[in-house]
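Kindly review these tokens for lecture notes.

. . .
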Amino acid sequence: MPLILHLANLFLRGTALMLGLVAAAAGLACLGGAFSVQLDALTHVAPVWLAVGLAGMALAAIFARDAERRAVMGLAAVGVLSTGLLIVPEVLSGLHAPAKPVPGATVKLVQFNVWGENNNPKATADWILSQNADVVMIEEGGGTAFPVVRALAKAYPNHLTCRDRQGCDTWIFSRWPLRAHRSFTEDKLPLFGAWATLDHPKGPFTVAATHFIWPFPGGPQQAQSRLLAKTLSPFPKDTLIVTGDFNSTPWSWSLRRQDKALGLKRRTRALASWPSGEFSRIASAPFPILPIDHVYAGKAWKTVKVARGPKLGSDHRAVIVTLTR
């Protein structure tokens, strides 16, 4: 029995050291993402490295010996502090008093990647319709999720899509008529999405929806971000609203640069939206950990409420944002 306990103790001490090393290396690499898009790819999963560092500190505190404990906890602390510097400001930035809705000038939006492998499209459509939103933007509206599109198209006669190119299934549904609209793919841009100027009774404003590729490897997603900012630059920034599945987290240097390039205020702050439920054929998640679905709006808009939707048939959670001007 003592031999078994001794071996278990060695294993846990070794695990603590491994976790400490991984946390320190990943944390420093995340800071290096400020200068390298390849390193920035690691930054998107900063909460994972933070959890690894905390786990290493906990194991070291319990099982490691004196000098060994200090060394391992020091390594883990490097990872915790490095990732904390990126995550904590984002969390704190979401702490603000909500604005009061102005009658006739308040807009409720739903941003939702409904997933092309949606395993419950009816529940998904029913929930979206129950929100009675003014504008709905969805991504991956093809495949098994297409019944969601059909249901929304009946409820929102004013809609458009970028389905003129294989792989692009981004849709915009509006309560108000579309004064002008165009998909990014109509201009042969390597970017999925579309924009529409809505004929609102209080004055027109433009909304855009997009779907970025994954951030691995570094480089192509950043190119999409720059292209999006350039494409939307002609529109009045004060009233512009931009939403989408950006596949980019707010503690990444890439999204920080995008925030600046768009010149809009991101209203979703540390609101995790992925993964949700059975997000692949072999894996499921009890709750989302990565905020990759975002809503931006110009300074004419004040934030009334930001919320996350329930687990439905998608691998994402919906984001519900209410704005007033």
Remarks:
- The mean pLDDT is 94.
- Helices lie at 2-32, 37-43, 46-63, 66-93, 121-130, 146-155, 220-232, 253-262.
- The two ends are 70 Å apart (CA to CA).
- Residues 31 and 85 are 9 Å apart (CA to CA).
